[in-house]
Write the structure tokens for this entry.
Amino acid sequence: MAEPRGRVRIAADRCKGCGLCTIACPEEVLVIDHCTVNPKGYSPAVAARPDGCLGCGNCFLMCPDSAITVERFTRERRAAHA
């Protein structure tokens, strides 16, 4: 398992499933969950491989709905997280 470097969180109730975050993610951490429908009727994005998150923030920058937050871990926090 890769060392955690970041964590991505998606507010599924705000996500419209546009897929821009999945395209922007260099590690292919995010996917659209076609088995789930949020209250707005969309299939939201989910972190399918959360341990692969680099904490780069590309997904956050691409999200038109501000449904994504990204947390980067410091070296000390990575050690405590492991």
Remarks:
- Strands lie at 6-10, 30-32, 45-47, 68-72.
- The mean pLDDT is 90.
- The chain is about 20% helix and 20% strand.
- The CA atoms of residues 4 and 78 lie 6 Å apart.
